[in-house]
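re: that chain from earlier
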Amino acid sequence: MICLGSSEEWWDIDKAYISIVTPTNNKGNFNKIADFTFDKNQENPFIGRPCAYDDEMEDFIDIEGDGDKEIIVNLGLLGVSGYKYGILRVNEESNQMEFIKVNGQRGYIGNIEDYFFTMAATAMHNAHFSLEDIDNDGILEIIEEYRHRQEGDCWETEILVYRWEDSMFNYVDDLYSSSVECN
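^ sequence. v structure.
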């Protein structure tokens, strides 16, 4: 069970919280699995009221194939055309969650950071991310797809792939692809 909350009204939130618990009986008792605090003024950013993302993916998913679960969190609306997402690793031993780390992207290798994804669509661009096991090794890769409108009725599509290696996701330049399609 995922519990989300905030200390202020939705239009004036400075802190928000997420807790993962499992009920132990029908009287409301539970075991806490993990907690996380979002703070606009510190290192755990969010835009609106964070919520669990369950549109296309399960609430909990084992991305790295290590038995630990991760949760995809919608961090809020980016303007009128898209949302920002993060992936939190759930550590049941320490009862904590942390954002997954990614090592770079095309042109930014060596830039290790908490990583955030965008899902957006406008008349000029689209952004989407997904989790797929593209090499059939039991470990999911993160795939980002960006589409940008070019001159005329042409669209350029870029695909970026991140693979789990040791303790973080690393950008895989060999799997980068770009194409232009015109109608």
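DSSP finds no helices and 16 strands in the chain.
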